[in-house]
Amino acid sequence: MPTSGLMPRVTLREVADHAGVHPATVSRALNPETQAMVNSETLARVLASARELKYQTNTIARSLRTQRSLTVGVLIPDIMNPLFPSIVRGIEDTLDKADYTSLIAYTDGRADRVTARLDRLRQRGVDGLIVATAQLRDPTLEALLEEGVAVVQVNRRSTSRLIPSVTADAAGGMLAAIRHLAELGHERIAYAGAPLRVSTGRARIDAFRRGMRAVGLELASERIEQTESVSVGEGARVGRELLERDPQLTAIVTANDLIALGCYDAVREAGRDCPADVSVIGFNDMPFTDRFDPPLTSVHFDQYEMGATAAAMLLRRLAGEESGAPRVELETTLVVRASTAPPPRA
Amino acid sequence: MPTSGLMPRVTLREVADHAGVHPATVSRALNPETQAMVNSETLARVLASARELKYQTNTIARSLRTQRSLTVGVLIPDIMNPLFPSIVRGIEDTLDKADYTSLIAYTDGRADRVTARLDRLRQRGVDGLIVATAQLRDPTLEALLEEGVAVVQVNRRSTSRLIPSVTADAAGGMLAAIRHLAELGHERIAYAGAPLRVSTGRARIDAFRRGMRAVGLELASERIEQTESVSVGEGARVGRELLERDPQLTAIVTANDLIALGCYDAVREAGRDCPADVSVIGFNDMPFTDRFDPPLTSVHFDQYEMGATAAAMLLRRLAGEESGAPRVELETTLVVRASTAPPPRA
DNA sequence: CTGAAAGCGCTTACAG
DNA sequence: CTGAAAGCGCTTACAG
């Protein structure tokens, strides 16, 4: 037996024949928007036939006719990055409720792949886009906007104020992190950041600087460094560098949990202990941080909600209910675990 | 400006006009399968026009006509379960190369949701299915088979030998785990398993029993227990029960890393230490197990490859190149970390 | 080798 | 309120 595809087997035509009406009438009866224009007896008959024959609309045919695919493209760096599964799940659950389906595309953090991915999504005729891959300056996104495509940014955002976004409040989380360290008695606090070409990297270092000033601590440039990419390996490299430049530092605040994990390695390699000698703080509070050795103190935000919010914003846009470009910032909180402790006594 | 959707803006018709040929000719020229039947000069002209106008095929229109969507449904319990991101990525990368796109649907481990998810996939006209949600007895899957739909099972499989599958070799991994413990000197080895209605649960307990016999160790029924669902909480519950029933046990082999994590909790609650008092072994080797406290000894297999293999099998099937029902078992290896050690001296 | 026609399964202006 | 027609953008037998 040849394979056949999983598809609706009964057409509108067949329901129409069964109910003794014209296909157009069936179409009207089945669509909530137009249902009102069909006589209630006819309606009942059509509905009965549809149910009896187990009619299901062929989305492809409908899409071709309506020029709407009920499909949304989702651009993310990589689903294997533990930040994204919850965001994606939040997006998909929300889209699902509105009968939309998402088409996921991965860029692996390479800006040059975005265009290729977008081309594929274009061929599929997505109605809108949720992008977690925004660069700070992102001409591709601006071109999309130009084209009139509905797009919402999630997690990161570009500088264009015309594109809606849902991001985590860096300022709040960072300030809480620094306050926490200050209260423990830390003064020589270092910062291991994410690349500055991306809004999260930019926002978090700015927040770190502002936070340090707010608490009245010294901002030494030798205690600030950025990774080239967000990974454990890069975190370790930067961690080593910071520890070498200032062996007296007692805490490292990072822009990401993976970077924090790398700092764990750097601290250990230096023959020092976290948290006894050096405290480390992460950002994102990814799954299982509480299981790490030591359990990681990290800035938390609700990733599922981030995805859900972005999807809801896009849906509103697609429904024509929203034309502004809201910039939602999700609340961040510091989750204190065991990677932070008072500095060693001098 | 109203939103417009990201879709191809130039049609076959426009390319035809530009090249001075009939749309059918453009279609033939652009499709590798039929390209041979067009004159090389015409071909060149059409290709030039297509490139110049940046033509992209409208997949929706093509799908309606060909009755193939170039789309595959992927049924998984939950992308937030750390086992799945790599599998999904393996699937999507492989499908992508063949110009297929995947539509992901979540069941949250609830069999009753499968039908609803399948209905939605049906409306979208998926060409085939990759399911990570197989029950041991799975009438839904058999019905799909009956219908002639191409389906491949991944990670789990049903008892039907008619459906292809890609799973992890439980026997090999389990034997390696038990040998490792036996070599360390363990004798009272307990087992914390996964639900038996699912093939992974079934296969792993069978493998555990066979492994224990192979090594000549006693299989005490009070040292064997299954979770109701695969989660840290259930792992803790079963772990507690095992420790209570046999306080002398010195090792717990589990069917899953999350269960193993729960056993960590149970061991700790009992005032004992892993690995000094009780060794614990996981299964799946999910991401970041090496960062746990203690780093988890676990049975490893290549999850990305599992997904990639399943997708490749489905593609072959869809291409009509394969009509059997291969059951691929991926190699498993034991990754020894710090959650296993010799048993305490009596 | 190329064109003209039909049709995939819908929806929606347009008549009546 | 319902029907008949057109058409979304393709592909593919069928002629020539």
The oligomerization state is homodimer
- Number of spatially distinct domains of chain A: 3
CATH superfamily caption of the largest domain in chain A = Response regulator
Largest sheet of chain A: 6 strands, parallel
Briefly, what is this?
The structure is a homodimer of 346-residue chains. With 346 residues, chain A is α/β, with parallel strands linked by helices.
Task: Tell me about this structure.
2 copies of one chain form a homodimer. Chain A has 346 residues and is an alpha/beta fold. Chain A has 3 domains: 54 residues, lambda repressor-like DNA-binding domains (434 Repressor (Amino-terminal Domain)), CATH 1.10.260.40; 128 residues, 3-Layer(aba) Sandwich (Rossmann fold), CATH 3.40.50.2300; 132 residues, 3-Layer(aba) Sandwich (Rossmann fold). Helix content of chain A is 42%, strand content 16%. In chain A, the strands form 2 sheets. A 6-stranded parallel sheet of chain A has the order 2-1-3-4-5-11, sandwiched between helices. A 6-stranded mixed sheet of chain A has the order 7-6-8-9-10-12, with helices on both faces. In chain A, α9 links the parallel β6 and β7. In chain A, α1 packs across α3, α2 crosses α3 and α8 packs across α9. At the A-B interface, α4, α5, β2 and α6 of A face α4, α5, β2 and α6 of B. Chain A binds a DNA duplex (16 and 16 nucleotides) through α2 and α4.
